Amino acid sequence: MQKIIKSSRPFAIIVLGLICGFSLGLVLRIAGAAYSLDGNVIPSADYLYRLGTPTARWSSINSRIYFDAAGNVGIGTASPAASLEINGGVRLITGTKGTCDATLRGTLWYTSGGAGKDSVQVCAKDAAGTYAWRTIY
């Protein structure tokens, strides 16, 4: 089944293709140029959903974020060797820090010290089972 939605302006036509239940294709035409986005939601044997086409799974979103068969994610690297590998810096910004507990365990937090010293903390549990923000710097 294919649904065509036309805008009131001739320069924009959106075509939505609904194929095989979960499959979705989108073509957007603006001023003569065509941009397309297509994909399928395909359940695998382990009931995980992966994005891709009927014959292949996406391994990259935009040549900056990559996924490998083991589930590793690479940002700026096409061959991540860990669950998350980043080629470049990671910036932590200050917001509202939550209470350190089992839910936030392992979270890194940066606090801007304003005129004073900045700090970097991690939410961790000690040997007695007490959760607290532990200062790294």
Provide an overview of this structure:
The protein is mainly beta. The protein has three domains: 1-56, no CATH class; 59-88, no CATH class; 91-137, no CATH class. Helix content is 0%, strand content 45%. The protein has strands spanning 2-6, 12-19, 23-30, 33-43, 49-52, 65-67, 73-75, 84-86, 108-111, 119-125, 131-135. The strands form three sheets. Strands 1-2-3-4-5 form a five-stranded antiparallel beta sheet, with no helix packed on it. The chain has a three-stranded mixed beta sheet with strand order 6-7-8, with no helix packed on it. It is extended and about 40 Å long. The termini are far apart. The model is unreliable at 1-29 (pLDDT under 50).
Helix-strand layout with pairing:
Blueprint: E1 2-6, E2 12-19, E3 23-30, E4 33-43, E5 49-52, E6 65-67, E7 73-75, E8 84-86, E9 108-111, E10 119-125, E11 131-135
Parallel strand pairs: 7-8
Antiparallel strand pairs: 1-2, 2-3, 3-4, 4-5, 6-7, 9-10, 10-11
List keywords for this structure.
single chain, mainly beta, 5-stranded antiparallel sheet
What gross morphology would you assign? extended
Mean pLDDT: 71
Strand content: 35-45%
Element-by-element helix/strand order: EEEEEEEEEEE
Structural class of the secondary elements? mainly beta
Largest sheet: 5 strands, antiparallel
What is the share of helical residues? under 10%
Provide the spatial order of strands within the biggest beta sheet. Answer: 1-2-3-4-5
Low confidence ranges: 1-29
